[in-house]
């Protein structure tokens, strides 16, 4: 059987699920997929790989490859690698992303570009799947076309081998006849060309964003949506013949055993990084009670740990699922009376799943309640593979049909509208389809790992030794799947409840004082950004753009710089600009007094603040609304710092909206001040980013993630 190497780089499980789908379908098309996570470098070697390579890569943060690809990217970006080190490799790549963010599918593009720089060539066009409109619009046709591309590659390779063999035979015969003929050199060179030649280079962008629009032809014609909902549809979808995916193969055997031991602690959560359990020493509400969003500052006591950080670093908070949602899920699964039973897993002997492995995020022997609370992302939006699996455990024919529609190609628009866009969870689906009775095995096979939530450090170890501070908004949103429910973010909702005991009713600074109840504790792990740090040269000017909670790392910068200036009064320190924005001056101006102090002391040389919801005062002109407006007002100074004084600019905040607007403003400023066209300005900005003089540190606001700060 024709073998190909199949690698996936995943952050939350999407790329893995797609790679597993490819692996399952490969056998039916006469191929054997050697499936591995891209982090499992001991199980493959691209330098010696002779089979074609297929890679599925997601994107996280500010256009970065996922954490699982960190070491792989570091390895292939080694500048010591020769430009032809992967010239033998032929590959196809599928990138996953969201076009609402600035760097669409950039995780895949980074790997794609570097593989080509090392001599690798495509045997199949790169695909860029857009989660904004539905990944399946590109993923499904890309997978459908993969088999023909692999067949063509193997056919071409076999023909090439035969031609090489024939030339070798002719070469050997000629050498025996006359070793001195000069034309033999020509034959040898032809053999080498056949061995190293590219079987046909294609445009790596052919499956770009335009492919999304072209793929919509497979969807049904527009229908009257007035009566359609999560649980029912209208013609033509309700009468259409459906193309549903094959049922995912079962692969786990689950055994529940009564527990005799003590209850587990959250320290049992699996993590590649060290975990520190630390007490909360302080909590402050930074916004007024009538602010649209509630922002809290939390201080952790890390004095008894070896946890270390620099200003600009982020760290992970290990959080649980909502206890009420866990109990509701247990009740719906009819497992409430077995919630304390220990869960033991093993691979089913008769499974048809290729490369089946135990989920590493589910520790063996832990209680069912612990696993649902600390290990599985029960708020995750169910993938179509999970919906397809639920079909086989649904008895009501109408409910079964509707689940089939939602996971079908024809029902893609309904899946996006009623499942993905409404942020439906597995529990929502089980409540909406009461005849669906999935086994526990199905949850453990399909639900992804509950991810820790990253937050940026608001402190400096110079100004707050032994302390670590961070801030967060308590995120709330409406869920309208079956009925309208107000939900809180997984992590911020939990954190708000944890710090409630240290936050006095007057919402002022409070401390966990000795002699009273012990201070609440949370678990954290390090997460170093490596590049979102102050420049090594303190004389370099700095521009900081951070509206809302995006100001967090810059408070750490300013605290650190303040101490450095105290320690080195004769030192030369560059200018520091801060563009900050919020809704209302009197409600959510975060760190107002601290910023004024920095400005008065000369640490912060320029403080530019905008208020998006405050009305103009008297007959004055309308105030500047957004940070990009303020940047535009100071375009000459910004351009001078970036283009002539080797300044650095840091952008922290909302990745979907603010980051795009700031990026567009910078391009506009560079174009105007440098007197160049927009395309040239884009290139100049890209050069600044390559020089690490433009750094993005962006928040991805998603559900079930509450506030995922990504780097």
From TrEMBL:
Classification via CDD domains: methionine_synthase_red (cd06203)
Record InterPro entries: CysJ-like_FAD-binding, FAD-bd_FR_type, Flavdoxin-like, Flavodoxin/NO_synth, Flavoprot_Pyr_Nucl_cyt_Rdtase, Flavoprotein-like_sf, FNR_nucleotide-bd, NADPH_Cyt_P450_Rdtase_alpha
Protein name: Methionine synthase reductase
Protein's GO biological process: cobalamin metabolic process; folic acid metabolic process; homocysteine metabolic process; methionine biosynthetic process
Signal peptide residue numbers: none
Localization terms from the record: Cytoplasm
Catalytic activity of the protein: 2 cob(II)alamin + A + 2 H2O + 2 H(+) = 2 aquacob(III)alamin + AH2
Assigned EC number: 1.16.1.8
Molecular function terms from GO: [methionine synthase] reductase (NADPH) activity; flavin adenine dinucleotide binding; FMN binding
Top-rank lineage group of the source organism: Eukaryota
Transmembrane segments: none
EC primary class: oxidoreductase
Higher taxonomy: Eukaryota, Metazoa, Chordata, Craniata, Vertebrata
Stored SUPFAM superfamilies: Ferredoxin reductase-like, C-terminal NADP-linked domain, Flavoproteins, Riboflavin synthase domain-like
A GO CC term attached to the entry: cytosol
Region (Disordered) residue spans: 202-245
Ranges where the Flavodoxin-like domain occurs: 4-147
FAD-binding FR-type domain: residues covered: 273-535
Presence of the UniProt keyword Phosphoprotein in the record: yes
PANTHER family: METHIONINE SYNTHASE REDUCTASE, NITRIC OXIDE SYNTHASE-RELATED
Subunit (UniProt): Forms a multiprotein complex with MMACHC, MMADHC and MTR.
Swiss-Prot/TrEMBL keywords: Amino-acid biosynthesis, Cytoplasm, FAD, Flavoprotein, FMN, Methionine biosynthesis, NADP, Oxidoreductase, Phosphoprotein, S-adenosyl-L-methionine
Main location class: cytoplasm
Keyword set includes Amino-acid biosynthesis: yes
Cofactors: FMN; FAD
Gene: LOC111153446
């Amino acid at each position: 059987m024709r073998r190909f190497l199949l690698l996936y780089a995943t952050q939350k499980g999407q790329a893995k699920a797609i790679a597993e789908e490819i692996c399952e379908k490969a056998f039916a098309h006469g191929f054997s997929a050697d499936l591995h996570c891209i982090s499992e470098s001991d199980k493959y070697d691209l330098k010696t790989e002779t089979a074609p390579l297929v890679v599925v890569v997601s994107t996280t943060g500010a256009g970065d490859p996922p954490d699982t690809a960190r070491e792989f990217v570091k390895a292939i970006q080694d500048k010591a690698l020769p430009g032809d080190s992967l010239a033998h490799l032929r590959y196809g790549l599928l990138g996953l992303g969201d076009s609402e963010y600035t760097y669409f599918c950039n995780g895949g593009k980074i790997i794609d570009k570097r593989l080509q720089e090392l001599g690798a060539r495509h045997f199949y066009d790169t695909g860029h799947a857009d989660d904004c409109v539905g990944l399946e619009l590109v993923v499904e046709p890309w997978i459908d076309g993969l088999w023909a591309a692999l067949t063509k590659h193997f056919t071409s390779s076999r023909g090439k081998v035969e031609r090489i063999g024939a030339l070798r035979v002719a070469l050997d015969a000629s050498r025996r006849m006359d070793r001195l003929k000069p034309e033999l050199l020509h034959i040898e060179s032809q053999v080498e060309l056949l061995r190293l030649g590219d079987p046909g280079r294609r445009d790596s962008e052919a499956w770009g964003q335009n492919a999304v629009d072209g793929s919509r032809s497979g969807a049904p014609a527009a229908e009257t949506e007035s009566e359609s909902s999560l649980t029912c549809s209208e013609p033509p979808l309700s009468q259409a013949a459906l193309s549903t995916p094959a049922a995912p193969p079962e692969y786990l055997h689950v055994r529940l055993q009564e527990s005799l031991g003590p209850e587990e602690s959250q320290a049992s959560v699996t993590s590649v990084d060290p975990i520190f359990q630390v007490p909360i020493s302080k909590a402050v509400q930074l916004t007024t009670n009538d602010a649209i969003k509630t922002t809290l500052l939390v201080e952790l006591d890390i004095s008894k740990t070896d946890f270390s950080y620099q200003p600009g670093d982020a760290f992970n908070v290990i959080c649980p699922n909502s206890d009420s949602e866990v109990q509701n899920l247990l009740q719906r699964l009819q497992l409430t009376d077995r919630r304390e039973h220990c869960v033991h897993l093993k691979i089913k002997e008769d499974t048809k799943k290729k490369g089946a492995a135990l989920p590493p995020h589910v520790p063996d022997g832990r209680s069912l309640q612990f696993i649902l609370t600390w290990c599985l992302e029960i708020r995750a939006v169910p993938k179509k593979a999970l919906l397809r699996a639920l079909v086989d455990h649904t008895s009501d024919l109408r409910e079964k049909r509707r689940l089939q529609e939602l996971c079908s190609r024809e029902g893609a628009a309904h899946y996006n509208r009623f499942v993905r866009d409404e942020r439906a969870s597995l529990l929502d689906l089980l409540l909406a389809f009461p005849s669906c009775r999935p086994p526990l095995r199905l949850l453990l096979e399909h639900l992804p790992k509950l991810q820790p939530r990253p937050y940026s450090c608001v402190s400096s170890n110079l100004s707050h030794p032994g302390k670590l501070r961070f801030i967060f908004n308590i995120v709330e949103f409406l869920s309208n799947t079956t009925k309208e429910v107000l939900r809180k973010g997984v992590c911020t909702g939990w954190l708000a409840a944890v710090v409630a005991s240290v936050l006095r009713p007057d919402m002022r600074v409070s401390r966990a004082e000795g002699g009273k109840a012990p201070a609440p504790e949370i678990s954290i792990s390090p997460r170093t950004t490596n590049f979102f740090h102050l420049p090594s040269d303190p004389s370099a000017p700095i521009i900081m753009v951070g509206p809302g909670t995006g100001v967090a790392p810059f408070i750490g910068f300013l605290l650190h710089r303040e101490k450095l200036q105290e320690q080195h009064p004769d030192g030369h320190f560059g200018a520091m600009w801060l563009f900050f924005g919020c809704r209302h001056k009197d409600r959510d101006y975060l760190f107002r007094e601290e910023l004024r102090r920095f400005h008065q002391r000369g640490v912060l040389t320029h403080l530019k603040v905008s208020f998006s919801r405050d009305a103009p005062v008297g007959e004055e002109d309308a105030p500047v609304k957004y940070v990009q407006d303020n940047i535009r007002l100071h375009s000459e100074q910004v351009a001078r710092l970036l283009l002539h004084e080797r300044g650095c600019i840091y952008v922290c905040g909302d990745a979907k909206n603010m980051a795009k607007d700031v990026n567009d403003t910078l391009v506009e400023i560079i174009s105007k001040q440098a007197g160049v066209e927009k395309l040239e300005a884009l290139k100049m900005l890209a050069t600044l980013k390559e020089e690490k003089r433009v750094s993005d540190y962006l928040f991805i606001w998603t559900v079930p993630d509450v506030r995922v700060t990504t780097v």
